[in-house]
Design a protein that fits this description.
Elements (H helix, E strand, L loop, with lengths): L1 H23 L2 H9 L6 H9 L4 H14 L5 H9 L4 H13 L6 H9 L4 H9 L2 E4 L3 E4 L4 E13 L10 H17 L4 H6 L2 H8 L9 E16 H63 L4 H31 L1
Antiparallel strand pairs: 1-3, 2-3, 3-4
């Protein structure tokens, strides 16, 4: 019984040791590399394990590159993996570029991948150009009519400018700016409707792909719709604004006139109060004059006669004025 237990422990320990050995020494992967005529040392594979690099992610792309006739080595692929790159996609891009007769060194391909761009898609776009559809661009001609234009831009990836070059949003923005400028310089919107290809020619001639990762092959106007009469709307808004300004100024003048009227009424009332006050002082002054002997009885009667005569003349003049008016 003890012999069986000892034998079982030995077998278990052997299996565990064999598993650990095969984990650190990928014999199967090493044999596959030898079968594909790719020389990768067993200690190189063990070193990858020690550096926490999955050997399969290096050896399998290396086999693929070797079969395609590419000149790459283990150190290049492992360094790219440790830098955070996608080794398999880089090798696929190198194979695709070789088949399409596009010059793409490994260093440039790795740099494009590390820059965050899809290097395989870039190579495929170099062979098969991509069509970018712009959103609807609103532009206004000189006669004030709005045009809504949608364009399709055919681009091809420029391998030499993929690192540091601007992307698709820049292309879309520049094309939209070119459309707005071209339509804005047209005298009438009908000129654009008659010859929409003129927009493509003008915009394409501006060199919009400068500094980008693409080469613009063509710009085609997909759709043109007539929008609002922006010029008439702006004139209407301006007229409404002028009317409001005039109304505000008129209201200001009316308020000033009302304030002036109120001021004059207050002044008139003040003058009338002073007249009444002065008239109230007259009897007191006359009484004081009688008392002091400065005014006699005859003087008082003469003054009253003059006052009565003046009032009679005023009454006669007013009645004569009324008759003349009614007679007319």
């Amino acid at each position: 019984m003890e012999l069986l237990i000892s034998t079982g422990l030995i077998v278990f320990a052997a299996i565990v040791a064999l598993g650990i050995f095969l984990h650190f020494v990928p014999i199967g992967l090493w044999i596959s590399a030898l079968a594909a005529d790719v020389h990768v040392g067993i200690f190189t594979l063990i070193g990858m394990r020690m550096r926490r690099v999955p050997p399969a992610k290096i050896v399998m792309p290396l086999i693929k590159a070797n079969k395609a006739g590419l000149d790459v080595n283990v150190n290049q692929l492992e360094a790219h993996y440790l830098a955070g790159g996608n080794v398999d996609k880089v090798v696929d891009a190198l194979i695709a570029s070789q088949r399409a007769q596009i010059v793409l060194p490994f260093e440039r391909s790795a740099a494009i991948d590390l820059a965050g761009r899809d290097v395989l898609e870039a190579v495929q776009m170099s062979v098969n150009p991509k069509v970018i559809e712009t959103p609807v661009v609103s532009a206004v001609a000189k006669n004030g009519i709005e045009l809504k234009i949608k364009a399709r831009v055919t681009v091809r990836a420029n391998i030499d400018r993929l690192v540091g070059g601007a992307g698709e949003p820049t292309i879309i923005a520049r094309v939209g700016e070119g459309i707005v400028t071209t339509v804005g310089s047209s005298e009438r919107h009908t000129d654009v409707l008659e010859s929409p290809d003129e927009i493509s020619k003008v915009v394409l001639g501006k060199g919009l792909d400068a500094g980008t990762a693409f080469e613009i092959l063509s710009i085609d106007i997909a759709d043109v719709d007539v929008g609002r009469n922006i010029g008439a709307q702006l004139q209407t808004d301006q007229a409404e604004a002028d009317k409001r300004i005039a109304q505000a100024k008129a209201e200001e003048r009316r308020a000033m006139a009302v304030a002036r009227e109120q001021e004059m009424k207050a002044y008139t009332q003040e003058m009338e109060a002073k007249v009444v006050e002065a008239q109230a002082e007259v009897p007191h002054a006359m009484a004081e004059a009688f008392k002091q002997g400065n005014l006699g009885v005859m003087d008082y009667y003469n003054m009253m006669n003059v006052q009565s005569d003046t009032e009679m003349r005023n009454a006669i003049s007013k009645s004569g004025a009324k008759k003349s008016v009614s007679g007319k």
